[in-house]
Amino acid sequence: MPAPTEQPTCEPSPFARGPVLTIAGLTALLLVLISGRYGYLSDELYFLAAGKHHLDWGYMDQQPLVPLLAAGIDAVLPGSLVALRLPAALITAFGICCTALLAREFGGDRRAQVLAAAACALSPWLLLSGHWLAAATLEPAQWVLLLWLVTRWVRLREAGIRRDRLLLAAGAVAAVGVQTKFQIVLLCAALCASVLVAGPRSMLRRPALWAGVALAATASIPALAWQAGHGWPARDMGDVVNAESSRLLLLPTALLYAGPVAGAVLCCFGLWCLLHDERLRPVRFLAGTTLLLLVFYLLVGGRPNYLSGLCGMLFAAGAVGFQHRRAAGGTRWSWTAWPAYAVSSILPLALLPIVALPTAAPHPPLAPYSKFYETGWPELAETVARAYRSLPPDERGRTAIVGESYHLAGALDVLGPEFGLPAVHSPHRGYWFFGAPPDSATVLLYVGASEPLEPYFTTGRRLATVRTELDLVNLAQGVSVIRYDGPTMPWSRLWSRLRTQ
């Protein structure tokens, strides 16, 4: 048998470098320009606190990559929101480019590549999450990169070229992915199961694939060891997610996150094309992967954004499907693409903190998500600091500060040192694992909206209430600072009773 040639027999269309890089660059530029507009996201504060004060191999609700990255950036440029969020903007732009490259692997021409890239840039969830440094920001780009590597391997195989290093690279992406979120394991499992059913089964016989699997499995050992040593709290987090999410609304919300017009249409049409278009038969396993993940999250529970990692692939398949329609003479409605994209831009741009806070404050529809989760933290820290300084000096040394939620505790842990606050504790979710206050702490400053600790102390009184700038509705507004004295049992015994999800 002759050796495989080094060039494919059927080259894909040229990469639409100019327009795709322009879309990606403008998206990144927008995200950088607004990165310092409001303040820290509550989850960013949690990641910073975890990375700076509690760096570990694993956490209840995440893996160590984002906390490590956040702490590293903050160590170089302390307090800089622009620096903290720069990786998020860059990886969002990278995901846009990977989406266009995936459309190219599907046989997409320049127009299809640009349509796929533009849909990615206008996805409400992908664009909004690109504004923050969070695990949910990194994950979609990791997924689309892995899918591009596998798809490219399939295309080259169809052209008579064996490029197994692509499978090994996919394993390396999965190895990084398990340091972000374990959901990439579900993607890989669904991918392998779909390949087993729909082919090409020869992929499963390639040593490079299993070398990549071994690499990802090895990379996950520290996090799995942490989970095992702490009673597998990821299962508890799964219960939290299930309780917070509606399975009936999972798919409609996921489509809204993809895009209210262009994104949702491309996702649905892309899945249909993967199932029925003969020109996409070599990658039909991607349809099976999508359906398996959808069914899994519908049965087990999950947040709508868990499916956002599939958006780039479905955008690409849908754009190529419309290209095939145009090639077959169906050009009657091709003009509707750009009006649809223009309408699709309204929601994602409205969600971003583009408008300055004093202007946006009186108008609830403007940047509601950012206003709720990114404002009020300096006022929170100042209020708690005033309450702490009001204590007699001899009491401060035996005073603990406990936040009701990880949002409040993270904000105080990150911003509090500037105001002279000590380390903060919280019984909420992953923060509970950071540890209890010392048993020597007989005075408690409890920061929260409720008063669940009253039964465990002899006395308690409210010292202050947080009032945020412009009277915004946010997580800090109206939070109380309550002083408790005389714990009825040591913190080492009390902590297990206070844990909340």
Number of helices: 23
- Poorly predicted ranges: 1-9
The average pLDDT score comes to: 92
Overall radius of gyration? 25 Å
Q: Give the DSSP E fraction (strand runs of 2 or more residues).
A: 5-15%
User: What order do the helices and strands follow?
Assistant: HHHHHHHHHHHHHHHHHHHHHEHEEEEH
Head-to-tail CA distance between termini = 62 Å
Question: SS-based structural class?
Answer: mainly alpha
Looking at the structure, what is the overall shape? globular
Query: What fraction, in percent, of the residue positions are helical?
Result: 55-70%
Structure description:
Helix content is 58%, strand content 6%. It has 501 residues and is mainly alpha-helical. The protein folds into two domains: 17-351, no CATH class; 375-498, no CATH class. A five-stranded mixed β-sheet has the order 2-1-3-5-4. Helix 2 (42-53) crosses helix 3. The longest helix has 25 residues, at 81-105.
